[in-house]
Every structure is written in structure tokens, then in C-alpha cells.
Specification:
Length: 188
């Protein structure tokens, strides 16, 4: 069974928006679709580690999930670069986030923020708390394998790390910021 329910960005908790940036792509606001420093760091890491890391940005994940197939290949990666360039050219960061949070898999057959919020917490995506947002963000790398119903220790640790990163960032995303990731503190 598949759960999916599209919501505009205004009906998705700013906590979830910040949680996915904190966990998936902390340079989302400032890069143009590709985080070159993260790519270089992961290339170096992958030279000496058995388990490989990827440096896909939120923009790249959006392009992949919206336009492409899930397998890993150089051909698919080439198309991903092309579509990432196009969405960064034509969409605002806010639109990219809206699409990302509506198409990303957040559980086995659970797609998008609203479906995940209803599935895990029986509430609307706009009403997620910081903890709930971090919980959902913690399973995004492997939402079929990692479960919130009985999370393994590393998922619980990842939730804590995401909450710490959200705290370090200090508030909600400022989609108008261009040079660096800037946040607006709550209440301002």
C-alpha cells in the first residue's frame, strides 16, 4: 500500500524543513545544486572506507526522485546533473524544498511529509514538533530498512545529532539568503 498526500510548503512544518537541511544538506541555501566541498570530502573518504558515502544535495535528490529511476549508474547520474541544473535554474529554493518534501520516500510506501506525519504521528505535517521532524529526517537515507516504530540505536543517535544540528542552526530556513546558510531565530 502506498501513502501519499501533496502539501504546499506553507503546510509543512518549518521544523521538518530545517531537519532535512540539518541532516541531508546544510549548504542547501547557498549552493547551486552541487556541494563541491562535500563531493571532494566524500571522494577522499571513499578511497579508504568499505562503506561508501554519497554527497547528493537536496536538489540532486529532488531531481532523481522526480525525473529518474532509482538504480545507480553513470548514465543516471549524468541525467541527474542535467535535471539538477535545470531545477536550480528555474525553481526557487523554497519550491525545491516543497517538491523534495512531497516526493521523498519516508517509509516503506510512505511518500512525502504529510503521509509520513500521518503514518508515524497521526497529525498533519504542519504540526510536527522538532523531535518528530528529526525522527522522520533520521530515516531518510534508508526509509525501508530503518523503522521509527522500533528504531535501532544508530537511528536514535542520528535523531539526537539532527536535533543538535537544528539547534546549532538556530531557527527556520531563510529561503532568501544567498551567500551562506542563514536562519531566522524563532520569534523574530
Amino acid at each position: 500500500m502506498m501513502y501519499k498526500s501533496w502539501q504546499p510548503i506553507s503546510k509543512i512544518s518549518p521544523h521538518l524543513q530545517l531537519a532535512v537541511v540539518a541532516s541531508e544538506d546544510q549548504n542547501f541555501i547557498s549552493h547551486m545544486g552541487f556541494d563541491v566541498k562535500a563531493i571532494e570530502a566524500d571522494i577522499e573518504y571513499n578511497k579508504t572506507h568499505k562503506i561508501k558515502r554519497g554527497a547528493s544535495t537536496i536538489s540532486q535528490q529532488t531531481a532523481k526522485n522526480l525525473f529518474l529511476w532509482p538504480s545507480r549508474s553513470f548514465i543516471r547520474k549524468g541525467f541527474e546533473v542535467y535535471f539538477t541544473f535545470l531545477i536550480e535554474l528555474f525553481w526557487s529554493k523554497e519550491r525545491i524544498m516543497e517538491v523534495y518534501l512531497n516526493v521523498i520516500e519516508m517509509g516503506d510506501g510512505v511518500y512525502g511529509a504529510e503521509a509520513a506525519s500521518q503514518y508515524y504521528f497521526k497529525k498533519h505535517a504542519k504540526d510536527l514538533t522538532p523531535y518528530q521532524a528529526a525522527s522522520i529526517a533520521s530515516i531518510i537515507p534508508d526509509p525501508v530498512k530503518w523503522k521509527l516504530s522500533n528504531p535501532p540505536g544508530f537511528v536514535i543517535a542520528r535523531q539526537g545529532w539532527i536535533l543538535q544540528q537544528m539547534s546549532n542552526l538556530g531557527g527556520v530556513l531563510d529561503y532568501g539568503a544567498k551567500d551562506t546558510l542563514q536562519v531566522i531565530k524563532p520569534g523574530k
